[in-house]
């Protein structure tokens, strides 16, 4: 997570989706003194939070929801199959798991709905929709894809109206599954790592990610094995329908957010108009007081210039001498 109050944007750091590279590139805009970094034992939630990769629900512990409405919120997502394997590779290096076949054992024995959502040690496996959706509504203004990183990063920079370089340097190409010459990871190389049981588990645990972010879901361990099924009219319609629903949900949420922003602006306009009216009333009262004072001064001047005032001047002096 990175928040810039000067530029009014929030970068949501979804794990294993070039987040470290983006955070590093935009670090100059961080106005929270690196607050959203490292982990913290949060007493309010009763569990440890990884603040660098904080979900929107958990963010409410530190800030109110107005930040999501007033700031430009963006982040990046990644194909769930690729992301899970990339997260496993990181765990592999941390836990010294050396046999690639243990990838499937890991999925089948370690990953479940509770662990991947609430255990900070598994934050890299947390479903991506938790970072962009809240209460079933998308709170992000822009969600790019790792598969289109160069294009989408440049687009995000332009939308956020930043003067940062749109050419993003990768900090961890291996984690992103990228070689020096390619940008888009090869899906088949990841699917080959899954056995049917693991594939089924990932399909279930990350179902909303597939739907919300428009990624194809496979039901066998390789792209080639699904070719015949993809040619089926029923399967094709099924995939298209799920994709369209995901897009519809995203844009519906975007429209709702824009409507909310418009409502906030309308309220601000009304409040400004009310203040303007009060200011005008104060100006009118001040002008009336000035007119009244001028009237008194004119009467006083008129009296001082009158004949009676001049005739009685010696009498007033005698009174002063006494």
Question: What does it look like?
Answer:
With 322 residues, this protein is an alpha/beta fold. The chain has 2 domains: 2-266, no CATH class; 270-309. It has helices at 19-25, 56-59, 66-70, 80-95, 102-110, 113-118, 129-132, 149-159, 173-176, 187-191, 196-205, 207-213, 227-231, 233-304, 307-311, 313-321; strands at 2-4, 9-12, 39-42, 47-50, 72-77, 133-134, 137-138, 142-145. The strands form 3 sheets. The protein has a 4-stranded mixed sheet with strand order 1-2-5-8. Helix 5 (102-110) crosses helix 11. It is elongated and about 120 Å long. The chain starts with a strand and ends with a helix.
Please provide a brief summary of the model.
This protein has about 325 residues and is of the alpha/beta class. About 55% of the residues lie in helices and about 10% in strands.
How are the secondary structure elements laid out?
Elements: E1 2-4, E2 9-12, H1 19-25, E3 39-42, E4 47-50, H2 56-59, H3 66-70, E5 72-77, H4 80-95, H5 102-110, H6 113-118, H7 129-132, E6 133-134, E7 137-138, E8 142-145, H8 149-159, H9 173-176, H10 187-191, H11 196-205, H12 207-213, H13 227-231, H14 233-304, H15 307-311, H16 313-321
Parallel strand pairs: 2-5, 5-8
Antiparallel strand pairs: 1-2, 3-4, 6-7
Helix pairs in contact: 5-11, 12-14
Helix share bin: 55-70%
Main sheet: strand order: 1-2-5-8
Shape estimate: elongated
Low-confidence stretches: 175-182, 222-233
Features of the shown structure:
single chain; 322 residues; alpha/beta; 2 domains; four-stranded mixed β-sheet; two-stranded antiparallel sheet; 16 helices; 56% helix
């Amino acid at each position: 997570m990175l928040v810039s109050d000067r530029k009014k944007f929030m970068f949501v750091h979804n794990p294993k989706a070039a987040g470290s590279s983006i955070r590093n590139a935009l670090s100059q805009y961080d106005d929270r003194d690196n607050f959203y970094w490292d982990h913290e034992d949060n007493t309010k939630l009763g569990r440890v939070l990884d603040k660098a990769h904080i979900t929107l629900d958990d963010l409410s512990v530190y800030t109110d929801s107005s930040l999501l409405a007033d700031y430009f919120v963006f982040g990046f997502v990644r194909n769930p199959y690729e992301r899970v394997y990339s997260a496993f590779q990181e765990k592999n290096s941390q836990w010294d798991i050396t046999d690639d076949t243990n990838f499937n054992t890991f999925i089948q024995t370690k990953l479940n709905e509770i662990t991947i959502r609430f255990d900070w040690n598994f934050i890299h496996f947390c479903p991506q929709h938790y970072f962009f959706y809240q209460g079933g509504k998308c709170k992000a203004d822009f969600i790019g894809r790792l598969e289109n990183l160069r294009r989408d990063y440049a687009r995000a920079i332009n939308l956020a109206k930043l003067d940062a370089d749109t050419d993003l340097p990768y900090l961890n190409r291996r984690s992103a599954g990228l070689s020096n010459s390619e940008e888009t990871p090869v899906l088949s190389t990841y699917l080959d790592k899954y056995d049917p049981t693991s594939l089924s588990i990932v399909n279930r645990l990350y179902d909303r990610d597939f739907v919300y972010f428009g990624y194809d879901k496979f039901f066998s361990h390789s792209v080639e094995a699904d070719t015949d099924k993809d040619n089926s009219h029923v399967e094709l319609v099924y995939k298209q329908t799920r994709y369209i629903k995901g897009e519809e949900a995203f844009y519906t949420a975007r429209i709702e957010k824009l409507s909310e922003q418009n409502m906030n602006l309308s309220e601000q306009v009304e409040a400004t108009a009310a203040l303007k009216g009060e200011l005008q009333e104060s100006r009118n009262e001040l002008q009336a007081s000035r007119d009244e004072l001028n009237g008194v001064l004119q009467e006083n001047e008129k009296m001082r210039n009158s004949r009676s005032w001049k005739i009685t001047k010696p009498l007033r002096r005698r009174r002063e001498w006494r």
